[in-house]
Write a structure and sequence with these properties.
4-stranded antiparallel sheet, metal-binding, 4 iron, 4 sulfur cluster binding, two-stranded parallel sheet, alpha+beta, single chain
Length: 356
């Protein structure tokens, strides 16, 4: 019965739009737990205090769902189907990480996992006549879960040298997990296929991938533009370029992403975030930021950090009249954080102004 149920779960996951589904035992290997402990001890989580605070939960799935025996791991591709990538670099255009150009993935993945759980519930009810036998909890980057660990053990991807989950269809995907008390048969773990490649290490603009499978978040542009809530270290600002939310460099250079699948329609580009001028985004007042980015993962960083990030990007752009005027418009911004980054950007404009 359980083997048939596992096969049915995979089939239903595909029907719900997931590109892959696998099953792992609900325990964390000692190696994975030790890797997390060393990473935290080295301070590489930066200001993400929640990583240390909830470390025990990450290594003990039963603390999140008592009685959990299996983890159903799923993958959902997000490559934006209608994304318009510039043919060559344009430093007047904002760079937004591909995963954040459309709808917030948390709700999409969890809603589909809920539907998968309801399907399993109906299956169990039919076979056992007992609604209370099946318990579950759905996650998508929404709780202290070692997602990549379970994805690898469930056979749907492996841990790349950039620490993201890779598959033969690349890394442009979200992960989700369904913890359950069902003793489902586990799948074989995925084998790694990075070989001797080190493109992600060599490409990282800030050298945040300090060694294969090791990232120092304190240098990562995604951390600096999303997780960091204070001033961005001055020595790293010039390396950020025009990236205003996240960074995709370690993924765009990965050979496996040549085989990426088209993303789910839920993540189609909104607000022209694939090709918007820095000046246009910098002009958004707080209410427009909230309105335009409702339902977007970007909204959680808030308007202040949004302006901070764009000020840095403008400081790295060509010192045109349009860029200078945009920065000067926020010289007296109510936020000291924004004012400091605007002043830094204007101080970078020591070259003659060019025409727009």
């Amino acid at each position: 019965m359980l083997a048939a149920l596992a096969a049915d779960i995979r089939q239903q996951a595909r029907a719900l739009g997931f590109s892959a589904c696998g099953i792992a035992r609900a325990d964390v290997t000692p190696d994975a737990a030790e890797r997390l402990r060393r990473w935290l001890a080295a301070g590489r989580h930066g200001g993400m205090d929640y990583m240390a605070k909830h470390a025990a939960l990450r290594t003990d799935p039963s603390a999140l769902l008592p009685g959990v025996l299996s983890v159903i791991s799923v993958r959902l591709p997000y490559w934006p189907q209608a994304s318009s990538e510039p043919e060559q670099h344009d430093d007047a255009i904002a760079e937004v990480s591909r995963y954040a150009r459309g709808r917030d993935y948390h709700k999409t993945v969890r809603q589909r996992l809920q539907k998968l759980a309801e399907h399993i519930q109906a299956h169990v009810r039919t076979r056992l006549g007992n609604d209370d036998f099946f318990i579950f909890r759905a996650f998508s980057d929404s709780a202290p879960v070692m997602e990549t660990e379970f994805a690898q053990r469930a056979g749907i991807g492996w841990r790349g040298k950039h620490t993201l989950t890779l598959s033969r269809q690349g890394s442009w995907h979200f992960l989700g997990e369904l913890f359950t008390n069902l003793p489902l048969p586990a799948d074989a773990s995925a084998e790694a296929h990075c070989g001797n490649c080190r493109r992600c290490l060599d490409t990282c603009p800030t050298g945040a991938i300090v060694a294969p499978y090791e990232v120092d978040a304190r240098r990562c542009i995604s951390y600096l533009t999303i997780e960091l809530d204070g001033a961005i270290p001055e020595e790293l600002r010039p390396l950020i370029g025009q990236r205003i939310y996240g960074c995709d460099d370690c993924q765009t250079c990965c050979p496996w992403n040549r085989f990426a699948q088209a993303g789910d329609p839920d993540f189609a580009v909104r607000n022209h975030l694939d090709h918007s001028p820095l000046t246009a985004l910098f002009a958004w007042p707080a209410d427009e930021f909230e309105r335009r980015l409702a339902g977007s993962p970007i909204r959680r960083i808030g308007h202040e950090r949004w302006l901070r990030n764009i000020a840095v990007a403008l400081g790295n752009a060509a010192p045109t009249d349009a860029h200078r005027l945009a920065l000067q418009s926020r010289r007296d911004d109510p936020s000291a954080l924004v004012r400091e980054h605007v002043a830094w950007a204007l101080n970078r404009y020591d070259r003659p102004i060019t025409t727009v």
